[in-house]
Amino acid sequence: MSGQWGKKVKYSIFGESHGRGIGITIDGLPPGIKLDMDFINGEMQRRAPGRDEFSTKRFEGDKVEILSGYFNGYTTGTPLCGVIFNENQNSKDYDKLKNLARPGHADFTGKVKYSGFNDYRGGGHFSGRITAPLVFAGAVAKQILFDKGIVIGSHILSIGNVFDNYFDGVNLKIQTLADVLRKDFPVLDDLKGKEMKNIILKAKEETDSVGGIIEGSILNLPCGLGEPFFDSLESNLAQLLFSVPAVKGVEFGMGFEITKIRGSKANDVPYISEEKVLTKTNNNGGINGGISNGMPVIFRVAMKPTPSIAKTQNTIDMATGENSEISVIGRHDPCIVLRALPVIEACAAMSILDFI
Amino acid sequence: MSGQWGKKVKYSIFGESHGRGIGITIDGLPPGIKLDMDFINGEMQRRAPGRDEFSTKRFEGDKVEILSGYFNGYTTGTPLCGVIFNENQNSKDYDKLKNLARPGHADFTGKVKYSGFNDYRGGGHFSGRITAPLVFAGAVAKQILFDKGIVIGSHILSIGNVFDNYFDGVNLKIQTLADVLRKDFPVLDDLKGKEMKNIILKAKEETDSVGGIIEGSILNLPCGLGEPFFDSLESNLAQLLFSVPAVKGVEFGMGFEITKIRGSKANDVPYISEEKVLTKTNNNGGINGGISNGMPVIFRVAMKPTPSIAKTQNTIDMATGENSEISVIGRHDPCIVLRALPVIEACAAMSILDFI
Amino acid sequence: MSGQWGKKVKYSIFGESHGRGIGITIDGLPPGIKLDMDFINGEMQRRAPGRDEFSTKRFEGDKVEILSGYFNGYTTGTPLCGVIFNENQNSKDYDKLKNLARPGHADFTGKVKYSGFNDYRGGGHFSGRITAPLVFAGAVAKQILFDKGIVIGSHILSIGNVFDNYFDGVNLKIQTLADVLRKDFPVLDDLKGKEMKNIILKAKEETDSVGGIIEGSILNLPCGLGEPFFDSLESNLAQLLFSVPAVKGVEFGMGFEITKIRGSKANDVPYISEEKVLTKTNNNGGINGGISNGMPVIFRVAMKPTPSIAKTQNTIDMATGENSEISVIGRHDPCIVLRALPVIEACAAMSILDFI
Amino acid sequence: MSGQWGKKVKYSIFGESHGRGIGITIDGLPPGIKLDMDFINGEMQRRAPGRDEFSTKRFEGDKVEILSGYFNGYTTGTPLCGVIFNENQNSKDYDKLKNLARPGHADFTGKVKYSGFNDYRGGGHFSGRITAPLVFAGAVAKQILFDKGIVIGSHILSIGNVFDNYFDGVNLKIQTLADVLRKDFPVLDDLKGKEMKNIILKAKEETDSVGGIIEGSILNLPCGLGEPFFDSLESNLAQLLFSVPAVKGVEFGMGFEITKIRGSKANDVPYISEEKVLTKTNNNGGINGGISNGMPVIFRVAMKPTPSIAKTQNTIDMATGENSEISVIGRHDPCIVLRALPVIEACAAMSILDFI
């Protein structure tokens, strides 16, 4: 029962990494939206591996075929199902590993949960590949939001110990998001970006991996979105963000750092300027009482280092019940943070679309 | 549409701080559970103010009256509604502030969202008081889980810049949770606890406030709970945690720190011991691929400093549209972290009960 | 998990006939609705027994107390909880029957489902009394719909074998609904009404009961409400109607009779008149493809005769597992159809409000 | 937002009659079910047209391709998506009708609802063709239920004015259901069946159509399934049944006829026989208080005559806003009742699976 989410617009995701196809059904889109297929394909490209010198060389062929809900270039308003048919999946890579639990992965938990019947190839339904349909749905959502003036963007805040500058939560402009989006390595400070790339290369050489933090932002959100308690903006968005494999932390505004300062400093003081209500600071990340206040929504997502590494690791053999060793030979990303940017943005878009 | 949550057990929360009553309906409890009213009242007491030298002196009278779903000492299996009737609410405290937006609160966002019709007194439906019914529901859930051997506990990890020791994610024992629960100020290292209390007192004297981090744990969770993607254990629990007012960050296992180390270090290596599968480390907080692996689930919640402070702050007058000042005279908690422990635990209990 | 329903506006119902209180939480109402308490009380009165010479003499005291979501005469937009505290419940009436399954009731099925822990008094959570909170919620919904020009009304179509005239599905006017609402015995043809009353009286004298059919209507529904498949207008409304105890059949338009005629006769031919699209006939009851077409929505609900009768009946003793006899001495309605009119209308109102 | 349904097992349906594909995602199936593809194909065949002398000659090619959730012959427990790719769709048949509203169809309501963007070809998302994925999902559900001893079956109760015998609600045996399933024209009394076929042929010759009633049954349901109020067995099943195009009425047990008899006659008297609780009659259709009592569940569904007929009918031109005429030339079924049997059974299976 994991594949469904949403209230106004409902999503149903499906697929295994090595099954026939992965996809998502989007139910509740308004009719008459002229889908910008170039934009959607561009978002899929941001996620696909093989574009840069870090990622795996495998080509995943992320072409989405729309089976329904789309006619003559416009959404019909009926459920829209987009499918990515799997090609170029080298299933043999995974045969030998069938009974060995790859540390950090869901091999063991998945085997227990599904009584051994899960498709283990490439991580099956747990594979990061299943984020591809998410990006597709997010692209559609982003387009609809953009038409309403709402813009979503992100950058790599950190890789390992190297940190980029933070977004300016008070003055963040759409132009900044557009500029960083255009870069191959989306950071604000390119020098820091260079350091980050070195860290990734080093990890790759050492058959290891690194993680990082993504900082996201939503601009021009109207005031008043979100509900107190169970459907606060943070609750809704965090639920989606934590759905993404490898996410281990989510924070808004100052996040965990806000716990270290006084209330008098933390409170964002409101003032009126040109008939708009703004706040002098934005430590709350644009959200008060679970509801948007019109200031930029700022959030951060912690992504752990890729679990699949070629380095030999101890593990267990789930068939024999004995301790063993594993070396995940094959095609690995030393760092998925770059590819995760459109996935994180997709979550933000889906979340906001559920409130608008 | 904020008040409903849950799949197997469904909750519906209602109430304003100064309305007739606040409460929650719990729908889907198994029949025949002998509710331990002493335990439930104890949990309500942990949350209530006025117990220690820091909190506000106001007495909130958190006696829960059960209107349905409970007969002859046992749950009936039909919807159980628990209500706390409001007494001792000094509404006059809030009259003068009606049009002034208290910084850090939802006064402005709430007014926009509800077109000015929200009950503003004491924060209305946004009040931290509405966490009382949550604690009640959590107490019922905890009792049911405890009967299955699952134990939930927490401690104050930090207040301001002072940090307690962290839970040992590999070896955490129930006894540790029981010990810390018994303390008036639940920390592992009492010397640190003393420092923290000083920080709170100082803030109180300066009519200011401080925040902190709560670390929670769930022990003896069976392996296999949670679903990949939209209903992962992290997604489900984070959605509830972010529903609690003042929460600005949630992380699992090493959380944000995991982004700074290599994959070879981050991966929790599984091994078999006495026919159980354990991991040598627990950086993932007991969750892989959104599914519990049997190790302790460890998570952390960032709570911002209480927004209500007597210090004068700038703000806006929502009626006139002009800048103004506000001093929230009245009864304030300089720090709500201590009182939030049972609320955070309640979220964890409700979340797990939805999977068992 | 029975108590929750709704998408845009979510309801959560609770209560046992002899518990402390029965009620409903309504989550998602727009803020700023000035509740017409006279109207709401009037609807509660239509449902309450003791008003006419047929019904039971017990007085149920259906005064709704609003605990939240309502401030200074207006809805706040936050969850609104209405509770009816139980008084005047003679629990002793039911003690002797504790182990005897009253035929036609849910005594046996409820005991199995709830492992014997259900509150059996007066039918507990299965009692028709729990329709009182439904009427309250329906009254609120009706008021909101009325402000949008949408009117809901009904009449008793039949009692036993005596049938009133049917609503004119093409020309039905609001005035007709208003006229029939004003009557003590809401039928179109008062002579038929007199026959019906005789049937009810005779059943009462013979310590037996009768059932009947209610015909309902929704006027001025905009075209386009409802969704194909799982959330068609018929699906949505039928789900609510079948929630009402004693309902055993639901039909729309010609209903079961439409199966006996040809397609050329059944099809409602559309035509344009004064820029509105109308149909010459209305055999489909105002709904095509699950979506409203602007014509009056006409539906019918079959209510079985009241199961509780003083006549001695065979049954089983659920404690001993032996066959036995039962005579349900006490206060019984020989016919609940009259009292069910506002309940049926409430379902219609709640259903439409979920689409508007 | 029409495509999603279910609580324990969640379904998401999509597709337009002339789009690329129609399908359904089933989320929540237990892992390890060995799908019987022969059985599933058999169910698809029961629904497909072209098998007998009445139906349309078009061949719809209902081969389901499973894209996910199915591995090595077993369900994986992850979301299972089945797609039927559209072939042999003669879109030209519908071009001329683009602006003419076919009476009885959703052309007009769909155009209004979807602002003219809906795929109008062949009825688009409103097409009866979309019941094919429902039959697939129902087949999977039936298989799971059958393994638990629960059997679902149906027969044509009536076509036009000709009625078959009714199911014996007290003594109905699995063998009866098996026997009727084997027939090309599933009725209990073959002589009546012959009369029915004549009625259909006559309608076909006169380019008209007829409707009928389907009677369904669920045997060996455990006692205790269903919830009082919003999720009663009747509510749940009726919601699905009314999702099927052309359904205009649903009743349980005696249905509308129960309104004509006395309570003393309507009540099903329970008695104990061989340690099982049975009832002497079964006027309530196996359901008391919304909960199954162990007796056969009996229900009936009214299906209106097929709206698409070649006979010329008056209508409106939705583009010009003028009255017009239409003759739906092409391939029409004079009666869809026979083909609807597996669809109705699918609804029953999906409903029960949601409770088990």
TrEMBL record, chains A, B, C, D:
* Binding-site positions, FMN: 125-127, 289, 304-308, 331
EC number in record:
4.2.3.5
Catalysed reactions, semicolon-separated? 5-O-(1-carboxyvinyl)-3-phosphoshikimate = chorismate + phosphate
For the protein in the UniProt heading, the enzyme class is lyase
Q: Which UniProt keywords apply?
A: Amino-acid biosynthesis, Aromatic amino acid biosynthesis, FAD, Flavoprotein, FMN, Lyase, NADP
**Residues reported in the UniProt entry to bind NADP(+):** 47
Q: Which InterPro entries match?
A: Chorismate_synth, Chorismate_synthase_CS
Record-level Gene Ontology MF annotations: chorismate synthase activity
Report the domain of life of the source organism: Bacteria
Named in its record, the pathway it takes part in is: Metabolic intermediate biosynthesis; chorismate biosynthesis; chorismate from D-erythrose 4-phosphate and phosphoenolpyruvate: step 7/7
Q: Name the coenzymes or cofactors required.
A: FMNH2
Co-factor: note: Reduced FMN (FMNH(2)).
What family does the entry list?
Belongs to the chorismate synthase family.
Query: What is the annotated role of this protein in its UniProt record?
Result: This reaction introduces a second double bond into the aromatic ring system.
Q: How does it assemble?
A: Homotetramer.
Q: What is this protein called?
A: Chorismate synthase
